Amino acid sequence: MYESVLDIDLSQSEGRLLVAADIHGSFDALDRALEEIGYDRDRDTVFLIGDMIDRGPQSHRCLEWIDVPGRYCLKGNHESYIEAVCDGRISRQDHEEDGGRWFYLLDEIARNAYRRALLSLPLAARVITPRRRRVGMIHADVAGSNFWQFCGHIRHGDYRSEQIAMNGRSRFHAAREGRTIPLISDLDHVFFGHSPVADPLTVGNCSWIDTGLPHSGQVTLIDVDQWIDSG
Ligand SMILES: [Mn+2]
């Protein structure tokens, strides 16, 4: 059954919780970052929080990350473009110009396989980390200051909330401009992608971790518990 929001408990896990955003088809660079951090496939859990595809050279490799134990992918605006082109909400040309050309070069059977896999991805996740922190993962933004309440709107299929989850930048703009942003009240920390930063940006209990792959070549792969400890 399709679940638009995940609720995951890793408190019994003996591995780490790792997170990266906006891989954009640079899966070889992700592999190198995982190797550097000593990724243990049998113990560690990895979240890719949206925009796994488009722009980079290996978008087709996203399937190695979907429906695989210990790996979770969330839907970003780029994953949603495939559906939006089908529905006529954006043009195929716009998607191709934003890095989506690889998709239209696939044959129809492959396109359907990718479409099915990408469109069934969840939009958000609440995770209890191996060190029992309560963490949120989402591609772009959260409206309001209660993550789980916002996730409730997504679970009920609220279109506006889905769009904020995949495309929103209000909180990011406020954070970058040094304005106070409300803490996310029900969690220890929340990770966002979607809004490129030269280095990860943390304000309050929110971190933006999209460091502009494939343009920058810099993969940001975060060990969540370590990140919170050192924050
Ligand atoms: Mn995005």
Keywords:
231 residues; alpha/beta; Purple Acid Phosphatase, chain A, domain 2; 6-stranded mixed sheet; 4-stranded mixed sheet; binds manganese (II) ion
Radius of gyration: 17 Å
Identify the CATH homologous superfamily. Answer: Metallo-dependent phosphatases
CATH architecture: 4-Layer Sandwich
Small-molecule components bound? manganese (II) ion
Give the integer mean of the pLDDT values: 97
Low-confidence stretches: none
Helices and strands, in order, run as EEHEEHHHEEHHHEEEEH
Largest sheet: 6 strands, mixed
State the total count of DSSP E strands: 10
Helix content: 25-40%
The name CATH uses for the topology is: Purple Acid Phosphatase, chain A, domain 2
- Per DSSP, the total helix count is 8
Q: What is the general shape? A: globular
CATH class: Alpha Beta
Write the layout of secondary structure elements.
Elements: E1 5-9, E2 17-20, H1 27-36, E3 45-48, E4 71-73, H2 77-86, H3 92-104, H4 108-119, E5 124-128, E6 134-138, H5 147-155, H6 159-167, H7 170-176, E7 189-192, E8 201-203, E9 206-208, E10 222-223, H8 224-230
Parallel strand pairs: 1-5, 2-3, 3-4, 6-7, 7-9
Antiparallel strand pairs: 2-10, 5-6, 8-9
Bound molecules: manganese (II) ion (MN).
Written account of the structure:
The protein is of the alpha/beta class. It has one domain: Purple Acid Phosphatase, chain A, domain 2, CATH 3.60.21. 33% of the residues lie in helices and 16% in strands. It is built from 8 helices and 10 strands. It has helices spanning 27-36, 77-86, 92-104, 108-119, 147-155, 159-167, 170-176, 224-230; strands spanning 5-9, 17-20, 45-48, 71-73, 124-128, 134-138, 189-192, 201-203, 206-208, 222-223. A 6-stranded mixed sheet has the order 1-5-6-7-9-8, with helices on one face. A 4-stranded mixed sheet has the order 4-3-2-10. α5 crosses α6 (159-167). The model has no long low-confidence stretch (mean pLDDT 97). Manganese (II) ion is lined by residues 50-51, 76-78, 139, 194. The site of manganese (II) ion (MN) has 7 residues, from α2.
